[in-house]
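Let us begin with a simple case.
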Amino acid sequence: MDEDCAPAEYDERPRVELTPAAAALLRRLCEAHGPLMFHQSGGCCDGSAPMCFPAGEFRTGGSDVLLAELEVAGVREPVSFWMSRSQYEVWAHTRLIVDVVEGRGSGFSLEAPEGVRFLIRSRVVGAE
């Protein structure tokens, strides 16, 4: 991770994990779309869910933080997980767990046609 991406006041970065269901869905999506990325904006409604895009399709910049390069068994390239800097400031001490549930999420996220959606489950780091 590029050290310039993370705010200096946070020494402990959140950890991002995938549930087995999320990893299985990422394998299917990668087969169909190639390398992938996540972005979580922290907005309301669908904006609070992690959005999955083909890698590079969502433009990131100074207002985003790269939290992880997720290694997924069966996927050649790591899946980057980005979060808006303002959301990161709220979740900086949280373990993020990417999961999948039934139901339709945002039409912009790659999993939307699958009848499922990604969501974040979380735990405060150190409270586990």
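The second case is a distinct protein. As before, the sequence precedes its structure tokens.
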Amino acid sequence: MDIDARGPRFGAAVTTVILAVVLITGSAWLLAWQTLAFALGAAGGVGRSPYGWLFRRVVRPRIGPPTEFEAPEPPRFAQAVGLAFASVGLVGYTAGPEWLGLAAAGAALAAAFLNAAFGYCLGCEMYLLIRRVTVHTE
């Protein structure tokens, strides 16, 4: 079943703010929260993430029904990519080196910002590229 395309973009906007605050403050706790949000989105789909829940309950009722839909698999894969970067960042912030945490959180921030501001999902594009390369037509 396809999902409201505005949901992942809303989640990316929240993620952008969270990761910007992580980079400004160096908060490993806040990065741990974002890592958990990515894990829930990767495991259950973006609708199961805390930001997906917030979108469904608070935002969507105020902005009306969706007019554009997308397949759930690419955003879910993007959540897994975000999870990988956030996990590496968390290791950097908690065990060192700190530059690793900064770099990984910065990369995740850049990807989230691209989705939030321009609707360009790097993880989704990676998913589609991998599918094109690995799915063989006969």
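The beta strands are 3-4, 69-70. Helices lie at 6-25, 28-44, 50-63, 73-95, 98-118, 122-134.
Keep these points in mind for the review questions at the end of the chapter.
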